[in-house]
Write a structure and sequence with these properties.
Elements lengths: L8 H5 L3 H8 L5 E3 L2 H6 L7 E3 L4 H13 L1 H19 L1 H24 L1
Parallel strand pairs: 1-2
Helix pairs in contact: 5-6
């Protein structure tokens, strides 16, 4: 699956839904390098990152992925595992519950001072 290759603030800072959807569908994902995806994903482990707005970089990445079935399978396996661990609605809800419980606990502790 092809992600986002724009060299703009939104493209560089976000994790597009289609990246997560590709991982959920067990499809190797190719997207542009950016702070958002680089923070959560590892190049050639669970995602393939290439230079943004650089057609030769994108073409080279597509060729490598087409030619290397082991790399594709590695990315599919690891990407899907990461998706299940961190990006399913249940995983996100669990993180939110932890954050809310922590905020409630901190608020209670401040009230006792």
């Amino acid at each position: 699956m092809l992600g986002v290759f724009a060299n703009n603030e939104t493209g560089l800072r976000s994790i597009p839904n289609k990246v997560l959807q590709g991982m959920a569908m067990k499809i190797p994902v190719l997207t542009g390098k950016g702070a958002g995806v680089s923070e959560k994903f590892k190049h050639k482990k669970d995602i393939y990152l290439c230079d943004t707005e650089n057609p030769p970089s994108i073409a080279d990445a597509i060729f490598e992925l087409k030619s290397d079935s082991v790399l594709r399978e590695t990315m599919i396996k690891n990407g899907y595992a990461l998706y299940r661990e961190q990006f399913t609605p249940k995983a996100i809800a669990n993180k939110l519950v932890v954050i809310c419980n922590s905020a409630i606990q901190n608020n209670k502790e401040r009230g006792k001072e």
